[in-house]
Amino acid sequence: MRSLLFAANWKMHLGPADTRAYMSTFLAEYQERPDRQVWFFPPAVSLETVSTAVRGRASMLAGAQDIYWEPKGAFTGAISGPLAAQAGARAALVGHSERRHVFGETDADTGRKVAAALSADLYPVLCVGETLAQRDAGDTLKVVTRQLEAALPPPGRVDPRLTIAYEPVWAIGTGRNATPKDAAEVHRAIRSWLKDRAAGQTRILYGGSVNLKNAAELLAERELDGVLVGGASLDPHGWAELVRTGVA
Ligand code: PGA
Known about the structure:
Layout: E1 4-9, H1 16-29, E2 36-41, H2 47-54, E3 60-64, H3 81-86, E4 91-94, H4 97-101, H5 107-119, E5 123-128, H6 132-136, H7 140-151, E6 163-166, H8 180-195, E7 203-207, H9 215-219, E8 226-229, H10 236-243
Parallel strand pairs: 1-2, 1-8, 2-3, 3-4, 4-5, 5-6, 6-7, 7-8
2-phosphoglycolic acid binds at residues 9, 167, 172-173, 207-210, 228-232.
């Protein structure tokens, strides 16, 4: 059975009180299924609320949107893998385009964060993707490969707990999604890079303006193992419907 991962990235929305209301609506409307996993990435202040709400549900978990690579210390404002785990996180996004482009996160930082997530026993979800200028210059695969190489350096095999999210920067929050064919081409290149590192089974999600209207068409493309969704995950009714999306 093809198993799909639906990841909700709430970004800077939904504090603990909003999250309690959201989760009670979502859980009332969505019945767990064996072929779907639902991962929630709330702001750090709401991690514990999500993790409490999904406790006992095998197909759901909470994850951090970002972690710092040091496990503890004088790093005002940062949260570490172990702190996120203590709040109930079981996964962490790494290298989301907003972290890279708004907060100046470098390729080298993403490598440290993937390693930190793994050592805190969190599933890393590494985000990669090109800007519009890079796509127009024909550099998409070069950029994505550089991001993979920096975040998952040798030696050693790519860890099987890893998930990749391909999110073209020009598609995030713009209403302009990649076509299934465009996404599939990049997914194939990522998969072949992973295969060369004995990690061909790694899940690869697509993200960037996924919504109720385009999710079924995108997920009909077999190269996609799921989706990472921002804006369209903020409404619990819409998100429950999106996760139920029928896939051919
Ligand atoms: P979007 O965001 O669905 O609002 O485009 C996706 C993401 O940034 O993960």
